[in-house]
Amino acid sequence: MSEENVELVRQALNAWIEVDEGLADPERLYEFVGPDSSVDMGNVLEVAGPEKSELRGDEFLDWRAAWIDTFDDYSYRAEKILDAGANRVVALFHQRGKPRGSDSWVEWRYGIVYTVEDGLITRGKVYATPEDALEAAGLSE
Questions:
Q1: Residue 44: inside a domain, yes or no?
Q2: Residue 68 and residue 116: Cα distance in Å, rounded?
Q3: 10: Cβ contacts below 8 Å, ≥ 6 apart
Q4: What is the side-by-side order of every strand in the sheet holding 106-117?
Q5: I want to staple 88 with a disulfide (CB 3.0 to 4.6 A). Which of 64, 84, 121, 138 is the partner?
């Protein structure tokens, strides 16, 4: 089941990119995400900015759209997607953006530990660094 979970996360992340690029309707994301899914922003609140740490469904989609809108140019990619055993997958990301009205670029590497149940992503927990995500999942590089 672990390989299927890794592939599910990979396909979901590809769907996010298609949505970001206007190539797919945001509804497509629900092919990969459970109806009561959540994203726990945890200890990255200073970076993320939501008033509560756990966002559900459309709350996360709205927050994410607002976050991306703060940049004139923005990209992100998964650098690694790893099986963390049982029903967990770790994705390590690199995010880069040019804040609106700025000539500077900001970059951030972070990790998300995903929980997969019944063939859908039901939870994501965001960690401020890839190392924190790996440690939380019991993995090391």
A1: yes
A2: 26
A3: 78, 81
A4: 54-56, 33-40, 120-127, 106-117, 88-99, 71-83
A5: 84
Is residue 141 in a domain? Answer: no
**Full-prediction pTM beyond 0.90?**
no
> Which stretches within the chain are classed as H helix?
2-20, 45-48, 58-68, 130-136
In a domain, 41, yes or no: yes
Token pair 């609106």 is found at 100
Query: What is the rounded distance in angstroms from the CA atom of residue 17 to the CA atom of residue 132?
Result: 24
Q: Which two tokens stand for residue 130?
A: 């890839």
Domains contained in the chain, number: 1
Which residues lie across from 115 on neighbouring strands?
A: 88, 123
Q: Is residue 96 part of a domain?
A: yes
Residue 93 CA to residue 17 CA, distance in Å, equals 13
CATH number of residue 27's parent domain:
3.10.450.50
For residues 17 and 24, what is the distance between their CA atoms, to the nearest angstrom?
A: 9
φ, ψ (nearest 5 deg) of residue 12: -65, -45
Question: At 110, is the pLDDT very low, low, confident or very high (cuts 50, 70, 90)?
Answer: very high
pLDDT grade for 141, boundaries at 50, 70 and 90? low
